[in-house]
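INTERNAL AUDIT FORM
Audit reference: QA-55
Scope: verify that the stored structure record matches its stored sequence.
Auditor: D.O.
Record contents follow.
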Amino acid sequence: MQNSDERALERKQRSLDMREQNLTRKEQALTRQEEQSKQRAKSNDDKASDLRDKEQALKERERSMEERQRDIDQRMKEVETQLAAQQAAAQAARKGGRLQALLTVPAIVIFIAVGYLVYQLQERQQSVRGELDNLLSQAQRLTSALTESARRNEQLNQSLSTSQAEASSAGAELQGLRKEKAQLQQEKSTLQSNLNASETKVRELTQAVSDAKNEAAGLHRQLQDRASENAELAGKQNELEDTLSQQQELIQQQTARIETLASELADTAASLQQATDALERSNSDIAAAHEREQNLAAQLEEVRSALAAQNTQQQESDTAQAALTTQVESLTAQVKTLEASNAALSQENATLAQENTTLSKDLAGKNKEVESLTNQVKTLQQEVTESRETPKPEAQAPLVNPDAGVS
């Protein structure tokens, strides 16, 4: 019975050791998964920061393009104002005669050409604005996706915190289980020592009782022999009675000794029963610890399932981040294309501004020519009027050629 109890205790001890090793490995696996989750969360934060930076850069480029658009509009307004002023000057000069009408025609042609260029610029501006609107909508979608990614990261962080709390609880429970196991081991050692001492004492008492019984049997045989001798030797009755009295006293002493040994044996049996009861209680405690360890293993399995689900969510988040990165790269390429278009538009604007300056200079020169011709016409008209007021035959002929030249 004792050997079977010891073997059962050894089996339970080995089972506790194996489960403790399994719990340690699971705790290490949880720690590694926690580190991986932290690294992935940090990577997601870095990607989110990059997306925010790219979004800010897109907004700045959009503002820059809007400012350039406003500059283009302002320049176009200035060109329209200059053209309106030139047209008004041309209309005012038209009243001066046919020469002014002939000079107005190039101004109208120039105005039409500039208007056509303005129309083309407006068309391109509308196209650029459409592309800017598309970029803005894509940036808004990226912002929404970034917000969703941040929300998922927050959920992952919460799950990670829960897993960390569960891992800490499992570690604390494992530590308590180890302490309880050490206490049980100590109690087992104490009980084993007490049991060994009790068994030794029982063996000694059993040997003493056996010796006493053998001695009593020998004395009883001697008594029987003496009784037969008394029957045979009636003459030696007095001596035998003395001897018998001595033998009876010795028997009484041996009987008292046997009773004492029996009492000690009963006490030892009671101690042995107490040790057995304590050993059974220890076995019950070990069984309860085994049950708690099974519950802890089930909780750790649930934690591992939660971490597996968390890893699946993390992979989905990585896929979404990769798609967002692809969209950002596409938007970057579109922005570069728009920058190239904007550079071409800026170059065309510079060319138009240069042409406008040239046309303005030409128109100013023609206006000066018109004014000079107008002054000449006025002078000629005044001379004609004066010549008509004071007619002279020799002065009328030269006046015809200037009029013809003017016409």
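Auditor finding: record pair retrieved intact. The first helix runs from residue 2 to 94.
Action required: none
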